[in-house]
Amino acid sequence: MSFKRYLRLLAKQISVSDKLDEIVKEYSDHMEDHMEALMEKGMSAEEAEKEAVYQLGDPVYAGRKLNKVYRKGVEWPLLTYFLIVSAAFVILRYFLPFRILPQEWADYIGLGTLLLGLLISALEKYEDLPLFYAWARDWNGGGITNSAFILAVSVYFFARNIKSALIWILLILVLLTLERYSIACIRDKKVRELLWEVGIAETDINSYKGYGFVNGKRVRLEAKEGIIKRGNIFIVVELHGFRPLVMSL
């Protein structure tokens, strides 16, 4: 078995997409070091690769073990940030109650910010964005706000008292966790289906868009480097959010 096939089988078992690149790099670095050591002992490159892969063991078993270690169902940084900001807004509401705005209007605003926050949260998870991020790809600074902040704003408008604030915070925590976990499961399924698969370009593929066929399915793709011409063979090397990134073979 070649090391390329070993990595492909290993990666297929790992559904924690944000750790996948790190795991693959660690294995690649380990493999290179191991092969160099074996070649210094007199083995050829082919013999060293074969022996190193053999010593790594079963890739399916190793991948499943790693997946159990890294698998996470709760995004604690996001939820912690939401709790802190929500608490701040509840305190603010206590000291600055609505004096002019009727509670019914406040409820409508709260519903609007809740729906907006959940929508932005879904987009953030779809794009695989971090907790803080810039609005544009070429920015060097951090983001101004995120979905957790907007959801915390909805708590401010919904809260009539401490009890109702706690109920809304708990409800939003549940909705946020279920939403993002569901999207993560769908993305992880796509990772397992496409990662390390070989396909053919239907159109020219650049860093913005393009189409190709992978396992008989037409897929929208992006080139990780350069331009892949129509008819060329490529391999899926990673996913940026839900968009497969490919490199020419």
From TrEMBL:
The keyword Transcription regulation does not apply. It comes from the Bacteria. InterPro entries: Perm_prefix_1. The chain crosses the membrane at residues 78-96, 108-126, 138-159, 165-183. Keywords: Membrane, Transmembrane, Transmembrane helix. The keyword Membrane applies. NCBIfam families: perm_prefix_1. This is Permease prefix domain 1-containing protein. It comes from Ohessyouella blattaphilus.
